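Bug #77: duplicate submission created two jobs. Keeping one. Sequence:
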Amino acid sequence: VQLVQSGAELRNPGASVKVSCKASGYMFTSYDIDWVRQAPGQGLEWMGRIDPEDGGTKYAFKFQGRVTFTADTSTTTAYVELSSLRSEDTAVYYCYVRLGSAFWGQGTQVTVSS
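Kept job's structure:
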């Protein structure tokens, strides 16, 4: 099982960013993919999850309206898009899947700075 994320991103405040998570080694449509982030000096913060089979999503209340999860079954890739970025969104973003054990992507650094 592998989750490979896209590279680091630098954005200005107010912009959007889209991070990808390419999954392999298991049945992509059979397991939800969760997204979390970790800001500098902070703990992990759960953002939500997507069911790749039907695109069903669940968002943490804090991120509703500003975060969008999508999944492309043809490429077995999940995406998180965050809009209206602010400096507080600077963090490492991770995807993970639970197949008994949890498998994690390597993380994507998103930096929001003018």
